[in-house]
Design goal:
With about 190 residues, this protein is α+β, with helices and mostly antiparallel strands. It contains 9 helices and 6 strands, in the order E-E-E-E-H-H-H-H-H-H-H-E-E-H-H. A hairpin with a 6-residue loop joins strand 1 (about 5) and strand 2 (about 10-15).
């Protein structure tokens, strides 16, 4: 059965028109998304105040549930995000233009971290080797049509370990691999 009756508008609608609700027998909300949105809009700030008060009373439980959901659905959420970005490239570009100050601040922070992680003892040969890695990434992108990045195997701003911006810490990988890794360091993957 791929349809369900909305208890509010009494219409038979496809399952995609309902939010998920773990407490329901079928795992779906009893109101369709449109009716739920209309209800929230009609309640306005009173609904928001109720939600905020509930969150404050159950903060620890809410945070634990959110973390558990993230851990259980990490790959699916990342895939959904990548798919969304692909569908909304124009929006993302406009966002970067609209929020240029924030974007520039994050970029400046990254550049500063890179400078702090670049040792003074690097030789000209080391800089040439690092430049070659970036050239290789650009070449692979052109040849394959798949974006490639230069990845720091040990992240520059990792929580558990912070690496250096040196040739031995760089590798060329597809962009999706680098972006999915974030600032995490996996010793098993690095030693493989």
């Amino acid at each position: 059965m791929t349809q369900k009756n909305c208890s509010s508008c009494l219409s038979l609608k496809p399952h995609d028109d309902f939010d998920r609700r773990a407490a329901s027998r079928d795992g779906l909300s009893y109101k369709c998304k449109a009716c739920a949105a209309a209800y929230r809009a009609s309640r306005g700030s009173a609904y928001q105040a109720l939600r905020r008060a509930h969150y404050e009373r159950n903060r620890e439980r809410e945070l634990a549930a959110a973390l558990a959901y993230y851990r259980d659905n990490r790959d699916r959420q990342k895939a959904k995000h990548v798919e969304w970005v692909e569908r909304n490239r124009d929006y993302c570009k406009a966002y970067r233009r609209r929020c240029a100050e924030d974007y520039n601040a994050r970029t400046a922070k990254r550049r500063a971290a890179l400078l702090q992680r670049t040792p003074a003892w690097l030789s000209r040969r080391d800089y040439d080797a690092m430049h070659a890695q970036y050239a290789l990434a650009a070449k692979r992108t052109r040849e394959t049509g798949v974006p490639h990045h230069v990845d720091h195997e040990i992240p520059l701003q990792g929580r558990r370990a912070s690496g250096l911006h040196v040739p031995s810490n760089l590798r060329v990988v597809p962009a999706r691999v680098n972006l999915s890794k974030g600032n995490k360091f996996d010793p098993e993957a690095a030693s493989a």
